[in-house]
Amino acid sequence: PAEEDLRIVVPLEDVETQEKKSISFSCKVNRPNVTVKWMKAGQEIVLSKRFAYRVDKDKHTLTIKDCTLADEGEYTPPEIQLDAKLLAGLTAKAGTKIELPADITGKPEPKVKWSKADLILKEDDRIAIDTKPGHSSVSIAKTTRDDTATYIVEAVNSSGRATATVDVNILGNTFIFISQYIFTHF
């Protein structure tokens, strides 16, 4: 069986401190001994003399030493809400345009990426990705059977990661070409 997506099962709690003091944040995830990235405002925290990281099975702790006002912030894990019609998947005819919208929340504002199977989607002449605070969507014009896949939207911020998937099935057009030969006798 495939491993389930990594998710936070005991989230970070609000913690207050004073400048020049140390502070620790802990959370638990659903799988033991995994590597996670600690992030603040969408940027990975680089471990240093001020930032220490500890893992004990499924518990992850970040300690910030000698706190400053710059360390202050509000953090909530990202959440993704798909349109209820997409939860069962999407089937469309080849040649049509499809759209996969998702409402995304979290503080700080999560960074969002879309992927098809294991490939990160990039905009091109057929694919458009529109991400703004609270919402992201991908649309694919002139679909082909090659667009049939599982699409994944991922939102990441300093408090965690959320993913949602949509199974897309593009039904191909069948074309029958009939050659007609006309012979003319003079």
TrEMBL record:
The name this protein carries in UniProt is: Titin
Q: Which residues form the Ig-like domain?
A: 1-76, 78-169
Which InterPro entries does the annotation name? Ig-like_dom (IPR007110), Ig-like_dom_sf (IPR036179), Ig-like_fold (IPR013783), Ig_I-set (IPR013098), Ig_sub (IPR003599), Ig_sub2 (IPR003598)
> Can you tell which superkingdom this protein's organism belongs to?
Eukaryota
Supply the source organism for this entry.
Answer: Astyanax mexicanus (Blind cave fish)
One GO MF term attached to the UniProt entry: protein kinase activity
Q: Record's Pfam families? A: I-set
